[in-house]
């Protein structure tokens, strides 16, 4: 209850429940019966004496029953048809909530809403009880979740493999000073109805110990000793949209191999007894909270191996059930590596084939290099994984041997193709020299895979011309491709913006069941761009979505926000390359300008509210300082009576998939303003545009392809281009121009911050110094054109009629960016798999 903060329960009376169950239609009756049954049996609670959480759980269990039936039929179909299957290995799956998505995909939302209503509950309130499954950091993890949705929808035999972290991405709190604080995310504290524990699907995984090469010349080795840990499977059904196909996401949990050591326990050594059991459980205890940075920590290495070893053992067991010769492995199996995180799968499959399956090196390598595919998601040097040789040798001695052997063969081939080119050998080697030596995982992923792809056109070009240039020269260009990212329009339009979805269906005169599976059909909206009725309703929906967001902010943060202004949103992980700093400095610039105007002049300006949300990695000092600056600028300008009618600013804490679902449909303009060449793709840009929000961005990542689709007149571009970046950075190093000279507007803003306009300026010196010295992300180069672009946005927004047309045109041209298209690209151009419909 919004007013008292308490739920009203007991809810209704037994008689009402029973009456309610009588006058419902057949399908609704099945649903209410199933819910009541779960309340009374699975939850062991009284039917008419139940809070919203209990009701949510009962509804979820009822939906799960349907999913399990479809899941079973799907697996049966795949086994009978025995098609080639693909496995998507990702350390992150940022799933968000499942209930709403499941009933929409099953086509049962109206029935559930009706049934739940008969029992005295409101479905939307129940949906709100669910915790997000936040097993990811950002774009890479959410992409994995969208691709799974599309794999089921496209009826493709794909499984995901990941880790069942006990704690997902941390909960973000903001202190009174504006500092980010991190709290754990114990998302499994409520029972999780969306997973099925598989107590019988278990594998042993070894760490440490010794690897002894055999002396029989076979190339085999024996790996023994060390620590053994058990991997146990949990299955998460992934329903497709309006199809029975329900794929599987298999998540591994680590457990001690044999409980704790009873001998030491009996001898009184309690700590010793539980120590080894704790260290096993620790492997899947927590998601590493770094996005786009690699941290060479032993526990992270153990996560990577634990997960790849369990997944490959599971894949191998399923393959062997089919009684095919081992050489046929790549005809039945494709394994996609989501970034380099699962690259240990390459030496692990070599180990299985050589040490356990008696294959020769050449045969094993042939199987491996026809099985794996590698997607690169970043060219940022700090994100490219490198593991110290001594650490790998210690944790995975057999894999280190295999990696050295792969390198030896590979260096021989390079030497043959480019005789005497020692520098090339050093550049291409799997081993980077230094103390210590390090294994370059992107090189290993590249040479161990059939094909390699980037995630947007520009990014894929950069992969080919920078980090893997030598490999293009060695293998030829055809090994390297592009699959531009996408998003699932089910969650990111139909679920988060149901009124817009309904308007689109009625305008196109096509049922949503059709166009949501065939997104290019949106183009039909173009024929109606000049329809004033459509424009009016389109604008009303945007307005209602702003009010929904304002309501959310009121309820959750206790703030009242104006809904009659432009909503300008930047929501993503905090990172210097994403340049939230550019945005906040632009806000300060606008504030200073407003202050300098007369009240009459101010009234002619475009009014706006600026929103930020996003988490900073706990160890990323500059990113955290940026949050602190945003929060303190908000404090000052929201309290300034001269200007707050025209400009307000909000940092919404604890960004999540669920919060994104409220924010995205409300935006008029969203910002995607990375330094050119740094954002591989971005996917929230697609979500905003699909919901009719316009884009303000740099010429980077998927922004470029969005502009190609919607037309340059419907996006606001600014800033330097990728080919300029190297040179500009060089200028900063060797021919630095003082900021006052180069960019006086920016200098003025920096002085306002230093001077204490937003609290002690000294606090922000380290952040400001990243701009004054070096300015790696080119704020001094792009600030002026950024301010100009913002001014163009203001002018455009004041012409509401034209703005709405731009908005409709934008949605109309987003068809390319469905993950249905992306998953089909992977299926056809990479994995060579076909769909297998469940009848
Ligand atoms: C790298 C290391 C650790 C954790 C995450 C990464 C990472 C994330 N690398 N790239 N990404 C993002 O992936 C998205 C999906 O492809 C892209 O849209 C986005 O531009 C990348 O930054």
From TrEMBL:
List of residues that carry N6-(pyridoxal phosphate)lysine: 687
PROSITE patterns in UniProt: PHOSPHORYLASE
Record's catalysed reaction(s): [(1->4)-alpha-D-glucosyl](n) + phosphate = [(1->4)-alpha-D-glucosyl](n-1) + alpha-D-glucose 1-phosphate
Cofactor(s) required for function per UniProt: pyridoxal 5'-phosphate
Enzyme Commission number(s) of this protein: 2.4.1.1
Keyword Transferase: yes
Sorted UniProt keywords: Allosteric enzyme, Carbohydrate metabolism, Glycosyltransferase, Pyridoxal phosphate, Transferase
NCBIfam families tied to this protein: P_ylase (TIGR02093)
Task performed by this protein: Allosteric enzyme that catalyzes the rate-limiting step in glycogen catabolism, the phosphorolytic cleavage of glycogen to produce glucose-1-phosphate, and plays a central role in maintaining cellular and organismal glucose homeostasis.
Name of the protein: Alpha-1,4 glucan phosphorylase
Provenance organism: Athelia psychrophila
